């Protein structure tokens, strides 16, 4: 036979106690009513007095006896009525107390496990899947806690598997990207070395003719490898920002010096603004955005860097007239390893986003394929 649910058991128990109390109360009332009816039966004073026709000494004795019986019956009636009221009050009070205690104990036994369950679900929501509830209490609560613990263990197992799968996927992607990026500079190095070996075997005296060019190519490709390693290292670093107030216009002009001879970069900078940012991070952000603009530019078209104040923020915009970004790719532009260029790791803009987040700044991008892109930085201009 299946067990009754908890709320059904509580209702049945309450009804049993209430009905039992009412039955007991009815029995008490019935007994008291019988007692009162008996007393009333002995109170037929008028009939008994009518039977007395002559008032002599014997009649007087009978009348006195009747009056005494009447007084005794009246007193008994009053006592019975008083007792009935007391018993009724006591029974009702006991019924109320018993019902209240049952409900209070039931509520306590139910609410405490529910509070534990709520706290455990909060832990689950915060990512702590190792939470475990003691399987105590009434049977329904034990079953509920057991189901919760099973769910928690399954979630923890699933999370572990997902993390392992994610790490494996990241390492696979990283290995693929590294293999591809390292292969690019190694190929020309290998070709140069093969050329030097062939010249050394066929015409050793003329090897000096191609040596400077070969050394230059090898040096350049080694530099490319160094920059590749630096990109990965910079992105992997989790350094805390050392934010400070400084004039961004001065630092932007310093950055532009190394590009000005080869590229048309136009500046429209408000000179009296300050930002609250890590200087090293700011250098990396501007450099990566500018390099991205240079790589995307077509036919040496100019790149414009604007800076102006807007309320309590400094806004920096880097505009190019390059190939632009397809709308379907805009949402992924800051993802690690995502790149639309034939060269590069896809970490430059991901690093920009990471550093902006660390410095409580905002980076946005607007672009249209074939018309260029605009990257916008929004940075606090005070220490507040």
In short:
This protein has 384 residues and is of the alpha+beta class. The protein is 65% helix and 11% strand.
Break the fold down into its secondary structure elements and pairings.
Layout: H1 6-41, H2 45-50, H3 57-125, H4 139-202, H5 207-236, E1 243-246, H6 248-257, E2 265-269, E3 275-278, H7 279-296, E4 303-310, E5 313-319, H8 327-330, H9 348-358, E6 362-368, E7 372-380
Report the structural category: alpha+beta
Strand content: 5-15%
Distance between the termini: 69 Å
Q: Could you name the CATH class of the largest domain?
A: Alpha Beta
Instruction: Give the CATH topology of the largest domain.
Output: Heat Shock Protein 90
Write down the domain tally: 3
Tags for this model:
alpha+beta; Heat Shock Protein 90; two-stranded antiparallel ribbon; 384 residues; 3 domains; five-stranded mixed β-sheet
Would you kindly provide a written description of the structure presented here, covering whatever features stand out?
- By secondary structure, the protein is α+β, with helices and mostly antiparallel strands.
- The protein folds into 3 domains: 6-125; 174-236; 243-380, Heat Shock Protein 90 (2-Layer Sandwich), CATH 3.30.565.
- 65% of the residues lie in helices and 11% in strands.
- The strands form 2 sheets. A 5-stranded mixed sheet has the order 2-4-5-7-6. The chain has a two-stranded antiparallel sheet with strand order 1-3.
- A hairpin with a 2-residue loop joins strand 4 and strand 5.
- The relative contact order is 0.06.
- The model has no long low-confidence stretch (mean pLDDT 77).
